[in-house]
Protein: MerC mercury resistance protein
Amino acid sequence: MFKQISGSIGSIIASICCLGFAPALAALSALGLGFLINDAILIPLLALFLGFTVWGLLASRRRHGINHPFYVGSAGAAAALVGIFVFMPVHILGLVSLIAATVWDIVLLRRFRSSCEPPEK
Structure:
């Protein structure tokens, strides 16, 4: 679960920086991370975080056995990565579907975990 959440948050931060959101760029500069405000660094970083999220979805798919969040998350990650180059609304739609798949997966993991607990005596 940590993999999906951290990957999703990292993807959102990298996307916000790629889109040129001024407060995020100012915060990075204030923290001394101004070198990150470069598409040559941000796009591979975005791809890394998207891959980290999909990897987390794959790992949790093995636990609860439901494939749908993994498929939605994979399609969302692909759309987010392609959309950054092609059409920004596709990128945003991909991120939204990736976050939705992560939330869906977390709900499934909690439901699976609660159904596998032994009954109390």
Observations:
- The mean pLDDT is 84.
- Residues 88-115 form the longest helix (28 residues).
- Helices lie at 2-19, 22-30, 39-64, 68-83, 88-115.
